[in-house]
């Protein structure tokens, strides 16, 4: 990747960010924080314009005018909240007719903010610069395994109709880069640049008081859908002999998955107690993490895992599958990342956590906070993302050179 200087003050490239969810949305998952953090770090280098849905995940009502205004004030961004249906499609079509140096999609699968912009791009090819797509984990194997046939047909149609011709892709790590190439075919690699952490880690109160006696406090905090794999977590705890309080928090993204999980919860032995806490506002995440002994997320695949970073920053050790970028947790002494075919390994970790002394637990929580600070140092990641967007937003980037091996088009 060649070096590119940041644009001079007063000549910021204009970048249109299309994200299914953005503040005041609270339940849209890690992609909300990914886009928000990017704009926070790079707002002095680029003029960001954001287009997003006018409601939260599974929300039935649009955001109020007051909450939209508050989000614009808090972020300092020009945010366009799109209505559903044809009204929103017309809004986005009108917005795409404006000149932008780069159009940056944060979904490939969303019909309104993935497919529709690709169609508009075909019709308005001369109206804007290059198009960059960050699939945000949508092309990871675990995600593609859900409704697999429909997704494979959709991707084949995108390729076959030429809608991906000249489109470039952003992966947040080598695993996602491989997944994108496997899903889309061809050999041209995506751009790889890590997602950016918050400019400041969330502040949490350090509690060095001895832990109260009682059950191991385990937290699952994520959207309830097949990829997050809550059912596996319930099966793991069902075989534990120690007392466990298992709290489940997050929006219900799939009704059938939640119904299946409720059945598993009803069958748990008496010494395993569960609570569903519902969807959680982002401001409540850090204190909730700090109040638990283990954060448990046996996900089928994550391209980043912002919630993992939030857990560690709050001093909460994590128990994960080995399908996230968060690896080597055992050697760091901050948790474990394990294969999903080894249920006993997950149970051994929970048993070890339950048997810890107060001193051991206090030392582990301090390691988690230190690890989060070190892992989330942003300087190199910010520089890499700035360089990528600057290079793509240059006028000569409007003609994509496939010989450079950077085009995602097929």
From TrEMBL:
InterPro entries, A to Z: Glycosyltransferase_grp1
Pfam family, one: Glyco_trans_1_4
UniProt lineage: Bacteria, Pseudomonadati, Pseudomonadota, Betaproteobacteria, Burkholderiales
SUPFAM superfamilies: UDP-Glycosyltransferase/glycogen phosphorylase (SSF53756)
Superkingdom of this protein's organism: Bacteria
Region (Disordered): 191-212
Name this polypeptide is given: Glycosyltransferase involved in cell wall biosynthesis
Species assigned in the record: Roseateles asaccharophilus
């Amino acid at each position: 990747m060649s070096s590119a200087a940041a644009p001079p003050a007063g000549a910021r490239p204009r970048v249109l960010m299309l994200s299914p969810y953005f503040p005041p949305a609270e339940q849209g998952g890690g992609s909300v924080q990914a886009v928000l953090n990017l704009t926070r770090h790079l707002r002095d280098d680029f003029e960001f314009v954001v287009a997003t849905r006018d409601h939260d995940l599974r929300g039935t009502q649009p955001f109020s005018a007051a909450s939209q205004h508050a989000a614009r004030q808090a972020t300092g961004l020009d945010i366009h909240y799109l209505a559903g249906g044809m009204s929103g499609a017309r809004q986005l079509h009108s917005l795409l007719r404006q000149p932008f140096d780069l159009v940056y999609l944060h979904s490939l699968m969303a019909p309104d903010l993935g497919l529709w912009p690709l169609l508009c791009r075909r019709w308005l090819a001369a109206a804007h610069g290059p198009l960059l797509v960050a699939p945000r984990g949508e092309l990871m194997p675990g995600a593609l395994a859900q409704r697999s046939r429909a997704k494979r047909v959709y991707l084949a149609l995108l390729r076959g109709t030429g809608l991906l011709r000249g489109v470039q892709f952003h992966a947040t790590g080598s695993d996602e880069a491989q997944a994108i190439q496997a899903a889309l075919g061809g050999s041209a690699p995506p751009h790889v640049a890590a997602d950016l952490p918050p400019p400041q880690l969330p502040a949490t109160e350090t509690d060095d008081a001895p832990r109260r006696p009682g059950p191991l406090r385990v937290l699952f905090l994520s959207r309830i859908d097949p990829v997050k794999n809550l059912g596996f977590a319930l099966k793991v705890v069902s075989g534990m002999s120690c007392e466990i309080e298992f709290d489940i928090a997050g929006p219900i993204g799939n009704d059938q998955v939640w119904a299946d999980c409720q059945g598993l919860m009803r069958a748990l032995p008496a010494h395993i107690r569960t609570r569903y806490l519902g969807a959680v506002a982002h401001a409540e995440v850090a204190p909730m993490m700090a109040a638990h002994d283990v954060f448990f997320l046996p996900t089928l695949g994550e391209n980043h895992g912002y919630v993992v970073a939030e857990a560690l920053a709050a001093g909460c050790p994590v128990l994960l599958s080995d399908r996230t970028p968060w690896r080597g947790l055992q050697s760091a002494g901050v948790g474990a990342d394990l294969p999903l075919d080894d249920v006993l390994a997950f149970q051994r970790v929970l048993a070890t956590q339950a048997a810890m002394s107060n001193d051991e637990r206090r030392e582990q929580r301090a390691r988690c906070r230190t690890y989060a600070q070190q892992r989330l140092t942003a300087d190199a990641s910010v520089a890499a993302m700035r360089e990528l967007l600057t290079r793509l937003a240059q006028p000569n980037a409007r003609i994509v050179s496939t010989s450079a091996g950077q085009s995602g088009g097929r």
